[in-house]
Automatic annotation (TrEMBL):
Pfam families: Mur_ligase_C, Mur_ligase_M. Residues 401-520 form the Mur ligase C-terminal domain. Coiled coil: none annotated. Keywords: ATP-binding, Ligase, Membrane, Nucleotide-binding, Transmembrane, Transmembrane helix. This is UDP-N-acetylmuramoyl-tripeptide--D-alanyl-D-alanine ligase. GO terms for molecular function: acid-amino acid ligase activity; ATP binding.
Length: 530
C-alpha cells in the first residue's frame, strides 16, 4: 500500500464526512425496515444528491484551475479541505425539521452508521493507494474525494445490504432465545392476535379485561415483528400467567414464522382486507397467511374470529371445532346487539350463551364494538366473568392515533393517523358522521394496496363526499384518485390540495372554523412524501 504525505488526514476526514452523509440515506432505509432499495426511492436523498453534484462541480472546477499553478499542492490541499467542510456542513445542518418520523438512533442505526462509514472509508483508502501507486503526482488523488458523494448512495446501499445479512443473523439469535424462554413455560397462556386491522386495539382491550384475574404481559405499542416480540419476552417473569403477542404480516411467511416462535395456545383473528396487497400479491395470499394463526398449539386452544370472516372456507369448516365467532352476526357465539353510537361513545348488549350484560364505552365507532366483542370472547373463554368484562369495557381508553378524540379550543380533532386500510377509513368516516357541525377530513390517501390502490382511493373519495363539508388532500399526485372520487360522488364542499402536511398545517388557521370536527385520516411516512 502506497501512502503519500497527508493521506491519513484525508482518510480521517472521509470517515467523518461519510458518517454525516449517512443520515438521509439511513433515515430513508429505516422508514422501510432498513431496506437498501429505499435509499434510491427517497426524495430527501435525491435532493441531497443534487446538492452534492453542485458542490462537486464547484470544487472540481477549482481543482482544475489550480492544476496549472506552480503552488498547486498547497491550493489542492485547501480545495479538498474546504470541500470536506462544505460536505460536512450540508449534512450536519440537516436536522430533520418537519419530519413526521425523524431518524431514531437505535443500536441498529448506530451500527449502520459506524460500519457503513468504516466500509466506505476502507474503499476510499484502497482507491487512494492505487492512485498513489499509479502516479507520483499526488495532485491526482483529490478527484477521488470529489467523486465520493456521486457514488455514496450506491456505496451506502451496498454496505447496508451486507450489514443486513449479519443483522438478520443477530435477530435470529434473539428470536431463538425468546422461543426457548416461551417453550420453557408450558403453564403460560400464550395468545396470538393478528389481522389486517384492529390488532393493537384488540390486544390492549384483552389485556385490560384479563388484568384483574391474571398477571398479563402484552407486546408494547405496535411491536408485532419477531424482534419486537423478542424484546417483550425479555420482560417475562415467573409470575406472568398470560402472554399476548400482536403479530404483523407484510409478506408471505411472516405469520408462520411468528407462530413457530411463540407457539400460541390461543389466537384472535380480527379482520382481513387489502392492507399490504402490494407485498402479498393477492387477496388469497393474504387470507392464507392470516389464517395460519388458527393453527394454535395444544388441544384446548380457542381461536376467536370476527363474525365478518365466517364465510372464509377454513373458518366455515372449523375442522378442529375450536373457532368462536364474535360480533354482530346472528351466528356469533359472542354477540353484540342493541348498539347505539354517538359522538361520546357507545352502548350495547353483550351476550354469551344465556348470559348478557349492558355495556358502555367511551371508544368511538361501531367497529370498536366488534373489537371489544373479540377481546371479550377470549377473556370469557379464559374464565373471566361477564360482569368483570363489562366493568373493564367501561374503563377502556382509546389507542393512541386510532380514533383518538382530542378536544381543542373550539375544534375537535379525531386522530386516526395510524389507519391506513379501506375498512378502517370507512369506519373513521362513520365516526365523523356522528358529530354535529362542519366536518373536515385531512388525508394523503392509502398506499400498499397493490393493483387495488387507485380504485380504493377513488372509493375513499366517494365516501368523503357523502360525509364531509371540506376535504384537505395531502400530495398532489397521490391523491388524484381521491379527487376523482370526490367528483364522482358529487362533492359540493370545499376541497384543498397541498404538497405536504407541513404546508397544509400552515393553512389550517384560514381553513378551519370554530365548531369544526377534523378527522386526521392516515399519515403516511416521510418516504411517501412527494
Amino acid at each position: 500500500m502506497v501512502f503519500a504525505r497527508g493521506d491519513w488526514f484525508y482518510i480521517l476526514m472521509t470517515l467523518v464526512v461519510t458518517a454525516a452523509m449517512s443520515r438521509p440515506s439511513l433515515h430513508a432505509a429505516q422508514l422501510e425496515n432498513y431496506s437498501p432499495a429505499a435509499v434510491f426511492r427517497s426524495k430527501k436523498v435525491r435532493s441531497a444528491y443534487l446538492t452534492d453534484l453542485v458542490c462537486i462541480l464547484v470544487f472540481a472546477g477549482i481543482w482544475t484551475g489550480f492544476y496549472f499553478v506552480s503552488s498547486r499542492a498547497f491550493w489542492g490541499f485547501l480545495s479538498c479541505l474546504f470541500f470536506f467542510i462544505a460536505e460536512f456542513a450540508l449534512y450536519f445542518i440537516e436536522d430533520g425539521t418537519g419530519m413526521k418520523k425523524p431518524l431514531r438512533y437505535t443500536r441498529r442505526a448506530v451500527r449502520a452508521i459506524v460500519l457503513t462509514s468504516l466500509a466506505i472509508t476502507a474503499l476510499v483508502t484502497v482507491g487512494l493507494t492505487l492512485i498513489n501507486g499509479a502516479s507520483p503526482d499526488h495532485y491526482l488523488r483529490y478527484p477521488l474525494f470529489f467523486a465520493l458523494p456521486a457514488v455514496y448512495p450506491a456505496l451506502f446501499a451496498g454496505a447496508l445490504a451486507v450489514l443486513n445479512v449479519f443483522e438478520r443473523l443477530n435477530n435470529l439469535r434473539y428470536e431463538r432465545r425468546a422461543a426457548r424462554r416461551l417453550a420453557a413455560r408450558p403453564d403460560l397462556i400464550k395468545i396470538a392476535v393478528t389481522g389486517s386491522c384492529g390488532k393493537t386495539s384488540v390486544k390492549n382491550y384483552l389485556a385490560a379485561m384479563l388484568a384483574a384475574d391474571f398477571d398479563v404481559l402484552a407486546t408494547e405499542g405496535s411491536f408485532n415483528t419477531p424482534l419486537g416480540i423478542s424484546k417483550t419476552v425479555d420482560r417475562l417473569t415467573p409470575a406472568t400467567e398470560v402472554f399476548i403477542a400482536e403479530m404483523g404480516a407484510r409478506k408471505k411467511g411472516d405469520i408462520a414464522r411468528l407462530m413457530r416462535m411463540v407457539r400460541p395456545t390461543h389466537a384472535i383473528l380480527t379482520a382481513i382486507n387489502s392492507q399490504h396487497l402490494a407485498t402479498f400479491g393477492s387477496r388469497e395470499a393474504i387470507i392464507r397467511e392470516k389464517t395460519r394463526v388458527l393453527g394454535v398449539y395444544g388441544d384446548e386452544g380457542v381461536c376467536v374470529v370476527s363474525g365478518a370472516l365466517k364465510d372464509i372456507p377454513v373458518i366455515r369448516r372449523n375442522e378442529r371445532g375450536n373457532i368462536v365467532l364474535a360480533g354482530e352476526d346472528e351466528e356469533c357465539a359472542v354477540r353484540v346487539t342493541d348498539v347505539a353510537v354517538c359522538e361520546d361513545g357507545s352502548v350495547f348488549r353483550l351476550s354469551v350463551g344465556r348470559e348478557s350484560a349492558e355495556c358502555a364505552t367511551r371508544l368511538l365507532g361501531e367497529h370498536n364494538i366488534a373489537d371489544i366483542a373479540m377481546a371479550a370472547a377470549m377473556a370469557y373463554c379464559l374464565g373471566v366473568s361477564l360482569e368483570r368484562i363489562a366493568g373493564a369495557i367501561g374503563a377502556l381508553e382509546p389507542v393512541e392515533h386510532r380514533l383518538q378524540l382530542i378536544r381543542g379550543e373550539g375544534i375537535r380533532i379525531i386522530d386516526d393517523t395510524f389507519n391506513c386500510n379501506p375498512d378502517g377509513a370507512a369506519c373513521a368516516l362513520g365516526v365523523l358522521a356522528l358529530f354535529h357541525g362542519r366536518k373536515v377530513a385531512v388525508t394523503p390517501g392509502m398506499v400498499e394496496l397493490g393493483e387495488e390502490e387507485e380504485s380504493e382511493n377513488r372509493l375513499l373519495g366517494r365516501r368523503l363526499a357523502e360525509v364531509c363539508d371540506a376535504v384537505v388532500l395531502i400530495g398532489k399526485k397521490r391523491t388524484a384518485a381521491i379527487a376523482a372520487g370526490l367528483r364522482e360522488g358529487g362533492f359540493g364542499g370545499e376541497a384543498y390540495v397541498f404538497g405536504s402536511l407541513a404546508e397544509a398545517k400552515k393553512n389550517f388557521p384560514r381553513l378551519l372554523h370554530l365548531g369544526d370536527t377534523v378527522l386526521l385520516l392516515n399519515d403516511l411516512p416521510d418516504n411517501y412524501d412527494e
